[in-house]
Amino acid sequence: xxxxxxxxxALPAGRSRLPERPPLSQPRRTGARxxxxxxxxxxxxxxxIPVAVALAIGAGGDGSIRVLAPLVTFSLxxxxxxxxxxxDWPGTRLRSSWAGWADTVLIAVGAIVLTGAxxxxxxxxxxxxxxxxxxxxxxxxxxxxxxxxxxxxFVATLEITLxxxxxxxxxxxxxxxxxxxxxxxxxxAIAGYLTVVQVESPAGSDVIARDGPVPGAVLGATxxxxxxxxxxxxxxxxxxxxxxxxxxxxxxxxAHVTVIGGGIVSYLFLRELLGLAPSRIAALSGCFIAAGLxxxxxxxxxxxxxxxxxxxxxxxxxxxxxxALLAVALQAIASRALHLTPSRADDWxxxxxxxxxxxxxxxxxxxxxxWPFPNPPTSDGSASVDV
Length: 387
Description:
The structure is a single chain. Helix content is about 60%, strand content about 0%. It is mainly α. The protein has a 3-stranded mixed β-sheet. The longest helix has 30 residues, at about 310-335.
């Protein structure tokens, strides 16, 4: 496939090869502050918030958890592939006003296909139950049975793409590398789901019960915490502190151990020492991830005039503060407006942050390239992608 310009190209900027390391792991120059921030990011909220609200309550409170949460979670590896491997192809073949929509349609189709695949592993393909929050006896509901599989696939995709810097797949053509990474992540997820996860079969359903050593809720909470470490280190802090290690083998080993180990240790601390339930841990971690993406992607570069250390500290404090605000506000909405039980309220908060707000930010910034708002040019004259 030939490499053309942005007006009808196979890939942005005419590249057939990706840079050696993903842009998110490349620290910004000290003092390099975007003159368009925070105004550009705040304008983006005009699109991000309505999309997030639609995903959070589009099927009602409990209905959104049971129907939209699995679909969105299964879509996330496709989102990562399009945003960080394909660099928005096939949307790059279209004018900017249509590019994000084309990619979104592809993501939606991929979500349905992958959720169906997850349903097959959970008990059998049941198309009606994909979109029915209460399918009744004799069906295979996707929530919560398929959620550990979806979470494993997404976290593994991010682990390869960001933590592992895409190595060695970034040497390949992006259109080849992206599907390979998603396939490997799915292979890891399937192996984990079939051997590790404990799945309970809802009464009367056709979900296959599994006797794995780790309950699905526990694995889910741990995966969200690993995701929180991924976002902190590779979105909020742009690869720090791992970028300070020059040897790739050592850098990637340290990064994987820190992120995965950090997620596991964090779960043990929150569960064993603070006594938080897995659903509450997942909800709080989801709030942190959404807040981190807001500051690290939507408002990317707004504190660039600070020194590197001061910027990292400020971003961490701002992320924690916003996460706390989201947790309080969304819990209130879940219990008072949506009338959900405490445990179901936690599930909804996790969905509203991870699957609604976080996805909306990624779609706007990394897939839609902030359309329709002005995207500031970089030093080489091309449009900035902020990722």
